[in-house]
Structure formats: C-alpha cells, structure tokens
Amino acid sequence: MEVKSGKKITLTGLFGKYILSFTGIVILLAFFCFFVMLGTVTMIGGPLLPANYAEQVLAENGEEIRNAERVTEKLIPAGTLYGVFSEDGKLLYGNFDEKEEKTAWDKYRKDNKYADGKGYYSFFQRKNGEVCITKYFIEVRYAKERWNQILPPAEQLTTWFTIGLFVILTVVSGFILSRCFARRMKKQLEGLCKATEKIAANDLEFESRPSEIQEIGDVMMSLEKMKLALKASLQQQWESEQQKNRQISALAHDIKTPLTVVRGNAELLSEGEPGEEEQECIREILKNVDYMEQYLDSMRQVLRGREKEEIKKLVRAEELTRKLREEAEALGAAEKIPVILESRNPNAGKEERFSAYEKADSESTGEILCCIDEVMRAWKNILGNALEHTDSAQGIHIEIRTEEIAEDGRFSGSYLVALVRDHGPGFSGQALVYGAEPFFSGDNSRHDRTHQGLGLSIADTFMKKQGGFLKFENSEDGSGAEVSLWIKTADNKGD
C-alpha cells in the first residue's frame, strides 16, 4: 500500500515558519518591555518617583520659596541642589559647593536653565531681593531617600530589570517554540520509527503513515518501496527454500528405495555359501548401505529442524537427567564401549554420580521448557560422535551438572549441563571454529567417510531453539574432545 500524499511542507519552510514566529514574538516582547520601563519611569507613588518629580515639587513650592523668610530644605525636593544668593551674587546659604556656586550664579546672570552636562536650573526671585537658585535632575528616584543611598540608581536598576525581563521572556519563548517544534517533529517521525522497527522484525504487513513534511514523506515512500521489495524477496526466498527442501526430501526418498533393494540382495547373497572374497564384498556393500542410510537419516533431521517447530513442554530436570543417563548407557552397551559416569564427589556410587537434581527436594528441583525429543536427538548425536572417535578401551566420560552464568557481574541464567568427554584425537583448530556448521567435513583428525558432519550441527540447532547452546572444546590435558549441551532451565532468576 502506498503512502498517502496530501498538502506537504518542506523542512526549510517549517523551520522558517518557526523562525518567523520567534522573530515576531521577540518584537512584541521588546515593545512590551519598553512600555513596562516607560510605565515604571513615569509611575506616581509606589517605590519609585517619576522622573520629573523634582520639577513638579519646585513648581508647587515656588510661591513659598519666593515669600518665605528663609528657604529650608523642606521646600527643596530630595536630590536637588540649591543656594540663596544676595543681590551682588554672594552665596548666603545652601548646599552648593564653591565650583557649583560660581556656575549657578553665572547661569542666573545669563538666564540659562541648562546645566553643563546633566540637570536643569530654576531661578526664584525672593521678595527681600535675594535669589534662590536650584539645580534639579530629570531622573527616576526611589521614594524612600535611604534607598537612593544604598541601592544602585533607580534608572539603572530599571534598565537592568527591563533588559532582564526581555531576556527571560525571550528565552522562555524560544524554549516553548523549540518544544513545539520538537513535538511536531517527533509526531512526524513516529511513523518512520515504527516502520523501521516493523521491517527489522520482519513484520511487513503494516501500512505506512503519511507525513505532512516533504522530506519525511519521501523517506516513508522509500521505506514503503523497500518493504515491498523485501517482502517479495523473502517470499521468493521462502518458496526457494521450500522447493529445495522438497527436492532434497524427494531425493532422499528416491535413494532410500534402491538402497533397500541393494540391502535385500546383499543379505540374500550372504544366506548362500559365498566364498571368502564374495563375503568380503557383501560386508562392504552392507557397510556402505548402512552409511548411506545414516546419511539420509541425518538429512531428514536437518530438514525436520528447519520445517517443523516442535511443541515445547515443561519437563522436570531430574527426569531429563535420568533419560540422558539411560541413553548414554544404552548406546555404550550397544557399541561395547565403556561409559564412565563422573561426579564432583569421587566417593559417590554409580547411582549417586549424577547431578544434584536427582537427589534434590521437590521444592528445589528445576523445570526445563523444551522439546524432549529434540534434546534427546541432540544428545544421541553427541554421544554417537564421541563413541565414533574415542579409544574403545578407555571409553567415554559423562558428567551432568548444573551451572549458573553471569555476565558483567550480573546473573544471566542457570543451565543443566550434559557433558561428554572422549579419548580421541580432539578437535582441530578449524573444527573448533566451524564444527557446528552443517556438512562441515573438518580434517582427518575427527573425520572419516562414515562421518557426515551433521551431528554437531543438529545438536547446535536444537539447543538454540530451546534457549541453550552447544559448547565444544578439547580437554585441558589434551586427552580428547569435550562436547556439552547447555540446557536452559525454566525457573531462571533472570527470566
């Protein structure tokens, strides 16, 4: 199914949209902060005085300054300099310093109200001939005079506050817009992530979600095409595999029939009175027929492991241990090769030489989720491999125990380990790497014309399906090979 298309927007357009939105918000915030500062500067009452406060007070008190017997500081607003001069320009009293005194009188004579630098002058002609000169400033001041002495200038603090407010609001706005952008992108990318997860899990029966962003939509279209191509490829591969299995199965069946005829004729010939040379030929024919039948049986096991998923059941560990032991003893007796049952307790008797599972209480015994037939087939293959390559006089050693595995210091799982040790030539370096590969021929150390290279492969396949694994290595003392089945228990702490 193709991805639906609709109105699309490019990533450039989407990002530009958010940039424009952010720019517009910043401009609005700038105007807002400007009006906040303007309102703060011109406010009446509260913690701050308006910038023209001194000018207003002087205008209100102007008449009293002209008519009062003496100009007191109560008539002069805080932060304002003043001085009362005689008619000839001599300073009578006030808070002008010597330099400011001369400048103020000079400004009065020239009728110049503008101070050099900052401030303004106002002149009051008193009724007794004196002149009161004040120098006031247009600036924001604190209503409480003590604050003007200990805090930064009100105008400076107001500027800092306005700039700080603008920065904070800008950052908050940017954060909110980025979160909105991130949420929108995440929503658009969810469909892309789910599609890749489905493809990774080989679940190709899903519908791709359309995206309103052009670039993401293009990627979704590419994934849709890849999904369809992968689906067709997997279908073709599955059909090819099925066809291959059917051909191998038919070939095995076709070979089985003439082999039966060959075996029957050879057995009929052996019932007569053939000579010694003829008997040798008959034995060789029967031996090779056995080899071919074993090979065909191994092929069927491989095909069965690929095609049929056995149903797993819970089996008690002590019951599986007993079956493993009995199978080892039976095969050893059939081949007339001794099977030595090992235990970690060297003084234990034969019936005690197995895992603690056989002696444990019902509360502590474990359970194993597996297809017991597959486990037993894997065990038979390992036993057969060991019996084939061991020294017939020394036999094989069997050990069944429990093991716990930890990874990075943490508990990973517990396993029932069934180990077989033989007294043969051991594995070559190549066999240790590729020994579990199907039809691996190895070298002459553990391979002859009666060995098909499927035993370890079948065992490895069955163990992986059960959740365990196969481990094979050479004995530490160099006396032979060791192969073990690691069967995962169902009551793992890590499950």
In short:
The chain has eleven helices and 13 strands.
Helical segment count:
11
CATH-derived architecture of the largest domain: 2-Layer Sandwich
What is the CATH topology assignment of the largest domain?
Answer: Heat Shock Protein 90
Structural class: alpha+beta
As laid out across the biggest beta sheet, the strand order is 8-10-11-13-12
In CATH's first tier, which class of the largest domain applies?
Alpha Beta
Classify the helix fraction into a percent range.
40-55%
- CATH homologous superfamily identity of the largest domain: Histidine kinase-like ATPase, C-terminal domain
SSE order? HEHEEHEEEHHHHEHEEHEEHHEE
Gyration radius, rounded: 50 Å
Question: Which keywords apply here?
Answer:
rod-shaped; disordered N terminus; about 50% helix; 5-stranded mixed β-sheet; Profilin-like; about 500 residues; alpha+beta; 11 helices; 4-stranded antiparallel β-sheet
Topology (elements, then pairings):
Elements: H1 11-42, E1 48-49, H2 53-67, E2 81-85, E3 91-94, H3 98-109, E4 120-125, E5 131-136, E6 141-142, H4 145-150, H5 154-200, H6 214-271, H7 276-307, E7 313-316, H8 317-335, E8 339-341, E9 367-370, H9 372-389, E10 396-407, E11 410-421, H10 429-434, H11 455-466, E12 469-474, E13 481-488
Parallel strand pairs: 8-10
Antiparallel strand pairs: 1-6, 2-3, 2-5, 4-5, 7-9, 10-11, 11-13, 12-13
